[in-house]
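Table S7 (text form). Paired inputs.
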Amino acid sequence: MKCEHCTRKECSKKTKTDDEENVSVDASSRAQDNGEKGEFHKLADAKILLSDCLACDSCVTAEEGAQLCQQNAKDFFRVLNLNKKCDTSKHKVLVVSVCPQSLPYFAAKLNLSVTDASRRLSGFLKSLGVHYVFDMTIAADFSILESQKEFVRRYHQHSDEQRVLPMLTSACPGWVRYAERVLGRPVTPHLCTTKSPQQVMGSLVKDYFAKRQNLSPEKIFHVVVAPCYDRKLEALQEGFSTALPGTRGTDCVLTSGEIAEIMEQSGLSVKDAAVDTLFGDMKDVAVRRHDGAGSDGHLAHVFRHAAKELFNEHVEEITYCALRNKDFQEVTLEKNGEVLLRFAAAYGFRNVQNLVLKLRKGKFPYHFVEVLACPGGCLNGRGQAQTKDGHTDKSLLRQMEGIYADIPVQPPESSAHVQELYQEWLEGTDSLRAQETLHTTFQSPERCTTSLDMKW
């Protein structure tokens, strides 16, 4: 049996009906076994459905399926309830990190400005018992800065003997999982080794922040609020080299829609609260974003950096040229009639397939491609931009795009806190510790030849 997104002939995923029953039964049995019937029991009904997953690789194993059952509100409320019991040895410090692409969803849903929506969300989470609420933009700063450096390094290394270009972004877990488990070589060597913002945030919370608070990593329960279900799968695979063995950077991922459902069911009287910082030195920090229409904007930032570093060209405005469709766009840097850089953005798996076919045939004109699984980018994640019948809520998406576009853009280079963290936490911008903390490796199984020839 295969789901609507599957690229293999056989699929181990269940139907939505099966998932609803299995997740519900599993979560209920765990709650009963643990005797956890606290005041939040009624609210803990949000669940992940495997058929909503964008990782079209038919590779959700039985073990991963069992772990995914814990990636829902039941596990979140389990920790909240444990914190209300007398046995303090089992208490956890609850930290929630919010993806910047989730904030426009809450602003649209609550009919608030993005800043007020951020404060309302923070106040609600803290009214439940969350101790700290962080904005993940700082993690995206690191991801973009490291991607910039990696591209320049690859550009200098690239040759006929060592073909390290194109560089394909690795911030989208749906795309990365598809590349690793379905495409394999020759795609995975082209994946950017920089960790995604979620993975970087896990390290910031479980390493840097934990040390500032004199906490061991396992005493922190880290929840990420994200636009898509694939972040749940990413959390299962996160390694964490600087913490205790077996500790994940992210313990639970809840989609924006799941949090909104909890807010609707709660009926709690909520006071707005400031979003916290990792440094504990500021309150009411202005909401900011990176230069991407519906994502963290790796393409725009890497393009400007490469133009300056490689050709001493200052690029102010970036002009996107839509090619096959609005989700496949090209950006070029030209001088005296010569194309110096050719970048592309490929969103949605239809465009991804065309991209991979060109790569296989050796007819690939791009130095860099920003690849995202969701058409339209992260704002269109299935965890927040979908109607109840599973279709894109186009009206809501347009509203979110307008809200996101109005958020001030701040380049990652301008963040003083990021530069301080490089020195204080990572022992320098080019240190071995920075390399180990901010970069990863990818699986490279033999490519599945049948998957690349499927019609999307």
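Next pair, protein 2 of 2.
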Amino acid sequence: MNLYAIVIGLIVITLLTVSLARFSKVKTKADYLVAGRSLPAFVLVFTLLSSWIGSGSLLAGAENAYKHGFAALWQAAGGWAGLILIYFIAPRARKFAQFTIPDLLEARYSQTARVLGVIAVLFTYTAITSYQLIGGGDIVHLIFPNISARHGQEIIAAFVIVFTAIAGMSSVAYMDVAIGILATVTLLVALPILTKSAGGWHQVAAVLPASHFQLMGDFSLLHCFELLIPTCLLMLGNQSMYQKFFSAKSEKDATRAVVGWFIGILILETVIVALAVVGSALFRTGEVHDNPREVLAYTALHGLPHIIGAIMVGAIFAKVISTANNFLFSPATNLINDVFVRYIRPDASNRTILLVSRLMVVFLGLWSLAQSLGTRSVLEKALYAYTIYSAALTPVILAAFFWRRATAAGAVSSIAAGTVVTVFWASDIVHTHLPPALAERDAIFPALIASLICLFAVSLLTSKPTEAQLAPFLES
């Protein structure tokens, strides 16, 4: 355990050093929110990779793989599909060069769309941050059994709040470079070692059900799409991603970063699922059977040589911290840019903005911690968060870039419908009054259908947007 504690300690010290090193370079709102729009493609690749692969992959995706095998890649495939379209969006997003998604919504639609966008982002991103804290708490508990998972969450929340508050996007992006390299190398090295210790793939296949190695496994086609579509739509509308594009040095850097990002998540998501599948063959019973979301960290502790296991646990820990940083920082920028500066103190000095920004990080971090303490399933929480964002925001964000006829009224009704249906579907009312076959389905299809109907129908029934509204979103 001393070895694992040393590795975790070194990672914490490294991350803190990076944050403090960037602190002196943060002097303005743009420096804090979008790193002064100076990030090169190399940094963008790793910060995008680190922000995407967190507890959603390392806990929820791994839990799915432990239970169902390689069919869990349907969830990851949503991100892969989304990135193909993002390749064409990235240069347009950098050309627009604002700070947040609500900036985009107001410029293309209206102030009302901006406010509703802020609400949707706050609910989604604090929920995503909350299960990063759960993942970090699980790791702390595994390494130090005398510390409960709950206390572990509180410790991780403190780390995340401090790291994020220090230097904003600049510290987040440059920490992600170190974390991304560490996690990529470690996971790639761990897979063949773990597979060999399990007796090779033929032995893994002999131990596990045949469905673990089939395209859809034991899922129905509908269930596969319920995993794929929310992930795809979250990827397409992900505010954290757009903020990275807004932070890019140029449109060319943004486009190049997408290519590297696609290659990175294609490899890492597959490796993560493969590690969980091998772990499920090695550890069919015991603690990990009762808590399958811990399969990667548990396997690193009990299935790998100590030094490799310690580094892998450290890499998972770092990835969870990194993703929590990204998803905590993103809604904080909304409260600053879209509420404080927009409506409360438009003339606020850079010093005031930086101070309030850091206070918002603390507030949202505590809110995320409160959510994490009441969460039972990371996978359910992840899909709930993905669905709110996917149904409420992604359709209107894509329409801003690709459908000239989308109107402010259509966007407002779409955001409202997607949010309301998702929240309603998660309530007890649905399970009480709808047939079980319908009530047990994920919210993504009813929420997305309601959102799209409102977007298209209301847009076609209202006046066309002006050329001034369209200009920032059209190709040169």
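The mean pLDDT is 84.
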